[in-house]
């Protein structure tokens, strides 16, 4: 038995399904969620998404006080399968659109004249407390930014593998620990007066945020979904540069700090280059070798856009109502005023 105390603490349950998974990880000997409970859970809701996140986390850094062997616990893997199936079925029903790879990628390349998403809001009128909430939520993704995408490397070959490895090399700092993008995001969090501990804001994060992280874990862990993982990765890289430019301006306008600005200015230039590599080498190379995966690439794009849009709508809905998007409040920043704290309805 190997129990590491350095991982994040187990979160609080959010319903019957997640409570059962957490009790299993705590070694309480209670049954894992059955098919009835999973079938009755909202596929995008807090309960199922937290349960799925908790099932995936042993593949990353695990949880403090939980045996490392749980990563390949047959009973936990068996319980995870219906959670994944319910999530995937919902995405295939709700996110899929009738278009091909060229159309799907082409739509990602078009920036609307009058954008209304989160990065537009933060650039134009975002307040420091909203930037802090955004960073706290996104920390669940950015502190493991490139990790699940690396799982696809053994499943690719030729141009696709070489292109993917080139982009991942940049994500991991080009061999320099201080330039790893997860490290740069932790520096951003420091500028915003946030706790940089891995997994610190899991209890605070919304279900739509959990779903965006769960998607990349799901696609990364299944060889059968390698095409969808490439589509997911392409979506993030193609859309990152213009959004990062707006977020860098938002950080500058709010006086967030130099490291907060640097994280996004780094992505403006890097991801503009990555976009070309991903389109021509990763997608192009994959479909040259395995043309039958084209519908999976499209699904990965569609599912990513769908879940990112849901996350953005959730954030903006709360902020425009003057409410926090978080389930639990943030500590006040130590060095600067973030403005009046929002109301919480969670």
Q: Outline of this structure?
A:
The protein is an all-alpha fold and 346 residues long. The chain has 14 helices and no strands.
Q: Given the helix and strand composition, which structural class is it?
A: mainly alpha
Note the beta-strand portion.
Answer: under 5%
Q: Estimate the global geometry from the Cα principal axes.
A: globular
Provide the helix percentage.
Answer: 55-70%
Number of helices: 14
The major pleated sheet works out as:
none
Mean pLDDT: 93
- Give the terminus-to-terminus CA distance: 38 Å
Spell out the helices and strands N to C.
Answer: HHHHHHHHHHHHHH
Instruction: Tell how many strands the DSSP assignment holds.
Output: 0
Residue windows where pLDDT falls under 50 for at least 5 positions: none
How large, in whole angstroms, is the Cα Rg?
20 Å
